[in-house]
Amino acid sequence: MHVLSDEGDFLLVDKPLDWTSFDVVARVRGAYKRNGAPRKVGHCGTLDPKATGLLILATGRKTKSIASLEVLDKEYDGVIRLGARTASHDTESPEYGHCDASRLTEGEIREAAASFIGQRLQQPPMHSAVWHNGKRLYELARQGHEVKERKSRQIEVYGFEITAVSLPEVHFTLRVSKGAYVRVIAHEFGELLGVGGYLAALRRTAIGQYRLESATSVEGIVGQIGLAAATEG
Fold this sequence. Notes:
The protein is an alpha+beta fold. The protein has 2 domains: 10-71 and 211-232, Pseudouridine synthase; 74-207, 2-Layer Sandwich (Pseudouridine synthase), CATH 3.30.2350. It is 26% helix and 33% strand. It contains 6 helices and 14 strands. It has helices at 21-34, 66-70, 106-114, 137-142, 182-192, 218-232, and strands spanning 10-15, 41-44, 51-59, 74-82, 85-86, 95-96, 118-122, 131-132, 135-136, 153-166, 169-176, 197-207, 210-211, 216-217. Strands 1, 2, 3, 4, 7, 10, 11, 12, 13 and 14 form a 10-stranded mixed sheet that branches.
């Protein structure tokens, strides 16, 4: 990883919990500026604040290649909590609609997951960054508004493996195409099982050929920028 390359670089970052993707961009962009080496910085593929894991940053001239990375497939590990729902389909909003999920069998859960494989239409959630009439959907959601005519998009689920069942929690590994909202899959999974569900935890493990194992913490990246600037200075 060449953090001060004139051509720019792709930086693999392990995004922390409760940070937005823009928080990471701002922190890294600020590190370049403080060290006298200002760079353009952008990210490829938004991660929700309640998700952690692989976020790819593009710096310098590499920001022109962001679109080529955004189309890559994604892989995730996560946990779905059955027997309750949330408005955001994750832990950002409170639970409601509690239901006993203990009657479910592991066979029913695995069968439901298998039914998601393939292409499907998915409607973006209200708590998302999709634009509607000049505003982000999440801004409207926080104002108590719901846009029912949200345009559905076609996604593909390549793999939905249940790795452990400890009701009400179901652990999974998911491989999906660009544009898929895992929160929506968690919600639809709970509805299919008749008990409701939401995404309790999510960690992105891969974007195309880029793997989380090669990622560095935000502070690690910031430290590398500082060290490189001091060495070149």
